[in-house]
Structure formats: C-alpha cells, structure tokens
C-alpha cells in the first residue's frame, strides 16, 4: 500500500490565501485527553442507571478539550456521527472518557472517544461502556472555520483510526449528497406535477 505523507510543509498553500498558511502537523498523542466523572445519585435516570445525557456531556467535553488542544484555539461541535451505548453506567461508577484526534480535514477534525467505567472504590477491570465519533470545526474570532494542523498518526492504531475516519467522512458526504439529490427531485416533481 502507498505510504501517505502526513507532514504538509509548514506555510504551504492552505487554500485560504497567502495570509493563512498551513499549520505544522501535530501527532495525535500531543492532544490526547482523558476526562473522568463519578456517577452520583444526581446522575441517575428514572431506571436508576447512569443518565445517557451525563455520558454525552462527558464525551463532548473530552472531545472539545482535544479539539481545542490540537487546533490551538476555539473549536465547536459540528456533528456527532455515532454515539453507541454498549453497557449502562451505574451510580458509583468512575467513568473515564478517553479522547483523541482520529483525522483532520482542512478546518474540521474527527475526535474519537472511548468511554470506560470502573467501580469507584474497587480495583476491578474497567468496562468499555460507550464509543463516539464527533466532528469539531476550529473557528476564528468571527466564528468562521479556520485551518487546523494536519494530524500525524504515530502508531498502527492511529493509522487504523485515520483510515476508518476517512471511511466515515466519505459515507457522510455521500449520504448528504444523496439526500440533497432526493430533495431536488421532489422539488422538481412539485413544480412539474
Ligand atoms: C460548525 C460551523 C462552524 C461550520 O461552519 P460552516 O460555515 O457551515 O462551515 P463550512 O461549510 O465552510 O465547512 C467547514 C468544515 O466543517 C465541516 N462541516 C460542516 N458542517 C458539518 C457537519 N454537519 N458534519 C461534519 N462536518 C461538517 C466541513 O466538511 C468542512 O470541513 P473541512 O474544512 O475539514 O473540509 C457552523 O455550522 C457552526 O458554527 N455551527 C454551530 C456549532 C455549535 O454551536 N456547536 C455546539 C456548541 S460547541
């Protein structure tokens, strides 16, 4: 398989004009972050297990920290592609959201988050309870998208995550295009029908 180069030359044309150079590439490890939270009684849902919204906020906060660290400034959640709850969190669980940049585009980043839970006062193995993929967009002071440093995968796992993020992005764009075409067909039928 052809070797991909992840090191765009610093200052190369970013596509944003001469005044916006391509930022230097950064390794995924430079912004990797873990955020933790103890599920207390206030975090329970009506069934007595951990409320999904609490886990979602933890996931978004962890991903936001990674996106801010990687892009070196403000970044906003543009989309949550997938948030899978695998096992319920319980009151008394110490929940860890491990997050890292999987992929970068020109101004957007995919952040992958893996959520693990362990009993807060027991030394038992942690369970994988949820996973999520979020797209963040770096913004300038006017709220407009700004270029992000290309991510440089280091490990075999980083490369796998990069490839899988590209597959998700390709599918997302194809789905959006298919929906737009379908709506355009509907509108054309309304006009002619
Ligand atoms: C996210 C936001 C900045 C994008 O602005 P925009 O003008 O629509 O951006 P563009 O169409 O120029 O796209 C910019 C990038 O975002 C990506 N993007 C935009 N909308 C997206 C979506 N729904 N899903 C995935 N990626 C998206 C584009 O693919 C592009 O990526 P690239 O530069 O890496 O190729 C804007 O929609 C926004 O401010 N949304 C509200 C964010 C918010 O309030 N979040 C919750 C609180 S943090």
Automatic annotation (TrEMBL):
Q: Out of the domains of life, which is the source?
A: Bacteria
Enumerate the CDD domains for this protein: BFIT_BACH
Q: Where is this region: Disordered?
A: 1-31
- A Pfam family reported for this protein in Swiss-Prot or TrEMBL: 4HBT
GO terms, molecular function = long-chain fatty acyl-CoA hydrolase activity
Cellular component GO terms, alphabetically? cytosol
PROSITE patterns in the record, alphabetically? HOTDOG_ACOT
UniProt keyword list: Hydrolase
Q: Which InterPro entries match?
A: Cytosol_ACT, HOTDOG_ACOT, HotDog_dom_sf, Thioestr_dom
User: Which positions fall inside the HotDog ACOT-type domain?
Assistant: 29-142
Please list every transmembrane segment annotated in the UniProt record, as residue ranges.
none
Q: Name one GO biological process term.
A: acyl-CoA metabolic process
Q: Name the family the entry cites.
A: Belongs to the acyl coenzyme A hydrolase family.
Q: What is this protein called?
A: Acyl-CoA hydrolase
């Amino acid at each position: 398989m052809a070797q991909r180069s992840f090191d765009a030359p610093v200052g190369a044309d970013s596509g944003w004009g001469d005044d916006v150079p391509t930022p230097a590439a950064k390794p995924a490890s430079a912004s990797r972050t873990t955020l933790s939270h103890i599920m207390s009684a206030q975090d329970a849902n009506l069934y007595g297990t951990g409320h999904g919204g609490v886990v979602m906020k933890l996931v978004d906060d962890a991903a936001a920290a990674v996106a801010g660290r990687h892009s070196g400034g403000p970044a906003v959640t543009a989309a949550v592609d997938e948030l899978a709850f695998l096992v319920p969190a319980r009151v008394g669980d110490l929940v860890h959201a491990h997050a890292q940049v999987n992929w970068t585009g020109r101004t957007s980043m995919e952040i992958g988050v893996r959520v693990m839970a362990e009993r807060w006062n027991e030394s038992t193995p942690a369970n994988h309870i949820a996973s999520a993929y979020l797209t963040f967009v770096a913004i300038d002071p006017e709220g407009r998208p700004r270029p992000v440093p290309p991510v440089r995968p280091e490990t075999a796992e980083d490369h796998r995550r990069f490839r899988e993020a590209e597959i998700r992005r390709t599918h997302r764009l194809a789905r959006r295009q298919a929906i737009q075409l379908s709506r355009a067909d509907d509108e054309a039928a309304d006009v002619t029908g």
